[in-house]
Amino acid sequence: MTSTGIAVDELIHRLELQPHPEGGFYRETWRAAQQVWRAGANVDPDAARSASTAIYYLLCNGAHSAWHRIRSDEVWHFYAGAPLEVYVLDAVTGALVTHRLGNALDHPGTTFQAVVRAGDWFAARCTDPSTFALVGCTVAPGFEFSEFELADVDALAAQYPAHHELIVQLRPAGASGQHTG
């Protein structure tokens, strides 16, 4: 049950969520009509991207968001449930940054929003696997699955050996090696 008394299955139904390849459930809620081109790209209509997109994203039932990266900046917004942690491997410094999302009014040490920079590997999970977290993700330029990459966990762990244990814990469900999207 959620904090509002709605079962997670009902929440999935009401919000019309679908399974996401990285884990959890999602639904795109908005895609900007305005088109943009990445710096250095030609003005080929096939290279155009929506200026921004937004989704609902739900983690529940012990699921996690597996390590992945995208070619755009992504802002996470907390909506409901228990806190979750978004883990980011800084591509420049190699440091692990942990954003703790939650209701900052009820859970000290949490924040309502966090930013993941384009190209950084990231993953997420609820701080308590028996809970759920409903968040939103806004991506600019807009999200395209063609620019989504699930990590080869073994290669990622070799690249960031100081974070090996966490990287292996958050591999794609049922995976044991390379996965790309």
TrEMBL record:
- Note the superkingdom of the native organism: Bacteria
Where does the DUF985 domain lie?
10-151
SUPFAM superfamilies for the chain: RmlC-like cupins
Protein's name according to its UniProt entry: Cupin domain-containing protein
